[in-house]
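Notebook entry, structure prediction.
Reason for the run: the old model in the group folder had no record of what sequence produced it. Starting over properly, with the input documented here first.
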Amino acid sequence: MFQGGALESELLAITEFSETEWHKFRVQLEAKGLIKAEALTHLGIDYPFLKFHPTFAPSIWSRLTEPEQQQLLIRHRQCYYQLSIYLHFEDDKNPFFTRAISKRELPNFLYAVRGSITAGENFAVDFMSKVNKFLYFFGLNQDRENLADMARYMGSGVDSQTWFLTQSNTGEQLWSTGRYTEAEAVFQDILRGLGATPSYQRCITLNRLGRCYRSTGQTEQAAATYRLGLEVAGLLEQTNSMKRNIGGLQTDLGDVLTDMGDYDRARESYEASLAIDKELGDLRGEAVVKQQMGTLALVQKRLTEAVQHYQEALQIFQQLNEPAAESAALHQMGRTFEESRQWEAAEQMYRQSAQIKESQGDLAKAAMTWHHLAIISEDTGKLKEAEEWYRKAIDVGRKTGNCVLLSQHLTNLANLIQQLPDRLNEAQQLADESLSISQTLDPTAIQIWATYNFLAEISDKQGKPAKAKEYRRQSRAARANFAGLEHELSRHVQLIDSVVRAVENAKVRQELEPVLENMISCGWHNLITSIRKILNGQRDEDILCEGLDYQDYEIIIAILHGIESK
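New structure, fully documented this time:
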């Protein structure tokens, strides 16, 4: 029954020993080396955790009659269910305390919840939901999946709490293993079952559905779903649980707004969420928001700020013993070092992150990190190693059906292979497959302009200029709809303005020449060639953007728009 040990308080409650009787018995057991007490006073817990010798519990159990065993099993399940409820709610206020207990008691929780599901007890699904919270924190995905499989058919009607919890656990498990489309279908079914009446269940289901939409590249639909969730939340009593749910919706809305390039509104959502976490004293919630604000800073090229946010989040997740969240923070720090071309530091972060994900069996998220290890390998000239990482990630993408990441993996592998001799046709096939996937998704979320750009480069090498020209036109059209374009152009506003003024002002042009020469020395040769064509009177967008990547041609287009508006 007891799985290797137990809190002394739980042991007393289940066995119904008096403290006096137990004290005498414990002294004898400790003297024989059958139990060892671990003091937990540093956590504010008066009772110790008792570790059992492997022979102790089986020996005692074998001496009991079957009715005695059954009574103890019932009390074991009931007591651990009550403990799971307490830890579930206490975790929001005192996570270090609850993680310390739940980590030690996890074998008992799993034994009890499995027994409860098997016995068909009316609290079994709620018990599973409470235990799942800590399984998620500790990254124990296989245990979560096993429990979900056991409880899948316990629903007792579309309007029951058991049905809601069972279906929600199923959807969450599907989402956590990268099966986003299946999870989306589950959450849509839940919403249909719940109806349109505002409720806590409807609110959190909209949040979960929004995550599915974002994971499959449906950013507009994700944002609309999060906003609907916030509307529902506003109609309900503002309990601490509801405030926490609102904070989660705001964080997830901030994530999708960042994807869409709407950075100002993303920051507003993160700040709203952070304010709620601080009001509630939710340390973990603060860490989550800090991490996402780091990502916002990263895409806006505020790298020092990004690292600071990630380091703060990482420290908290490590203290909370959350390996999954820790691996995510390590991954994001890797992205920041990659952006600043600190290859060794980036690779170190990525490898640590991948190791944690692989150890937890979370290959869907590990593939994201392998993808970046491929980029690092490519940028440092290790092309064979890069190809191996990309193919490893692609294999997982195909198995999980994660279209967003699969498209990105295929595009990057195509870009790598096109640089190698005699492999242009293979690169073309990979890029075509990526494009066919991308065209079914939100163009902004998938950054479809990059795929068009790669296809243009391949067409150039294949001697197909008309095809390359059309791909570049499509790339420019897709990029023009990106909400983050204005922010990215803000870094080049001085150059753009100077070129526009230099068109009709010889003195400004003369002052501009040293700037252009310096940019050539920094690797901007193609861009400067096009700028000089503009200064010499060329206005044909196709000619000027020929051979430019999307970061360069957006500058050229901004200059042309500036000239037209004068």
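Summary: Residues 362-483 form a domain with the Serine Threonine Protein Phosphatase 5, Tetratricopeptide repeat fold (CATH 1.25.40.10).
The old model has been moved to the deprecated folder.
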